[in-house]
Specification:
alpha/beta, 9-stranded mixed β-sheet, two-stranded antiparallel ribbon, 11 helices, globular
């Protein structure tokens, strides 16, 4: 993990003088910046949500992230514009507000989405700017990208949170719109590139909520280089209303959250792999 130090704000000001203008002026498309998060990495974090994703997971709680284009969404009876183009400089102005909190808590910045790897130049530039400011970086990713993108982005990431959703490619494609061969291949590649990677499993009823399915994912994760942790993320319906607001059908309508007893059984199945397993994260 990247170390933090006193005087970070002074170094940030120096960054604006030393960092190439083209890096700070790099443009990308986001749909939100969330401050004071305690998820998606250690400590207090700022989450930058990038727009665009190659997957269409049926349970996605941020459906407004999937399309790269700027959209309209109705929420609480009001029409919102989802998506805006910003520079790395603008992102850093928001990120830098909380450097004292990152320093005290061991936190930092996490790129999420959507899928940050869909905007590799923008993602790399944000990560580089964070490191120049002494800010810890993390990326939440599906791993669905070409290796040249991974080579460009992952070396600037301190902590990778990678989703492994299923081992069976046919079922993976049915529920996400994409097969999983590239994802599983990239999981091994990213694990080699990264010094700190956690595998995360969204646990979805009718998709991957049997003990054998979770056991298979955990065994795969345990074979990845340097990976020691696995997080089980139980299904929730918090994003369901967004589908209505976008004029889309929620394909898991009627599916109930998984009872705690079953989650505990899945936890035990995952622990058989020898990984450090936690529920949530």
């Amino acid at each position: 993990m990247r170390r933090f130090f006193g005087g970070a704000l002074t170094k940030t000001n120096k960054l604006k003088e030393e960092m190439p203008m083209e890096t700070l002026d790099t443009q990308g498309r986001i749909f939100d910046i969330q401050r004071f998060s305690v998820h998606d990495g250690s400590g207090i974090r700022t989450i930058v949500f990038l727009k665009g994703c190659a997957l269409r997971c049926r349970w996605c709680c941020n459906p407004e992230s999937q399309e790269y284009k700027i959209q309209k969404m109705i929420r609480a009876g009001k029409t919102e514009i989802i998506g805006r183009d910003v520079s790395v400089r603008e992102v850093m102005e928001e990120v830098e507000k909380d450097i004292p909190y990152y320093d005290r808590s061991g936190g930092g910045v996490t790129l999420s989405g959507g899928e940050a790897l869909c905007q590799p130049e923008f993602a790399e530039s944000i990560l580089r700017a964070c490191h120049e400011s002494g800010i810890n970086t993390a990326v939440e990713t599906t791993g669905f990208a070409e290796k040249r993108v991974l080579d460009r982005v992952i070396p600037h990431v301190d902590y990778v949170l990678m989703d492994i959703k299923h081992i069976n490619s046919k079922k993976h494609k049915e529920f996400t719109g994409q097969p999983n061969e590239l994802i599983l291949e990239n999981a091994a590649y990213i694990a080699e590139l990264s010094e700190n990677m956690t595998v995360r499993v969204p646990v979805i009823p009718t998709f991957n909520d049997t003990e054998q399915e979770i056991r298979d994912i955990a065994c795969f994760a345990a074979r990845l280089s340097k990976v020691t942790r696995l997080h089980l993320l139980p299904y929730h319906r918090l994003g369901r209303d967004k589908y209505t607001g976008l004029g889309r059908e929620y394909l898991l309508d009627g599916i109930e959250p998984i009872p705690s007893e079953k989650i505990n059984a899945l936890y035990e199945a995952a622990c058989e792999s020898g990984l450090i397993v936690q529920i949530g994260g």
